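Researcher: Here's the sequence for the chain we discussed earlier.
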Amino acid sequence: MSGGPLRRATDAVLQAARLRGRGGQGGVRPPLPTPVSLARVGNDLARRGYRFRTDDDGDITGTWDGNRFWFLLLGEESEILQVRGRWAGTVPESARPAVLQACNDWNRERIWPKVYTRPEGGGLALYTEVSVDLEHGATDSQLAETVSCGLVTAAQFFASVGPLTDPSAPS
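Model: Thanks. This is the structure I predict for it:
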């Protein structure tokens, strides 16, 4: 077994790990995680060509597909990045049971985003949240993936509940 295929494969993996630890072949090191900040989130959004602004609380906010989103840093050390979305529509009272069931089904069947309702202005508002603990930092790629996850999964949820709130939609 000392020279078998499993041993050779293990040796190859270990050798590759050693090379990465020394800077890899040609001295190229993989990117290291760096602390997350709203400036980095803003840089990621700007790189994609997205329009956004900073609100009075210092949070980044913008509108995607007509829905409002916020990019927040939460936690004692501002280590939790949260992408929060609010659906632009309103839930009519007649659609309340179906929308509540859709929220429950979504949360049971999917990891992201967390979805919930909240009473606002005499109606029911729909929210989504993707929260990731980035206590040890994130690479630019990891940060971009978190932002994308928050935006894309929220858009999927909002698209799925839209027909439930339209009384003219076929059943």
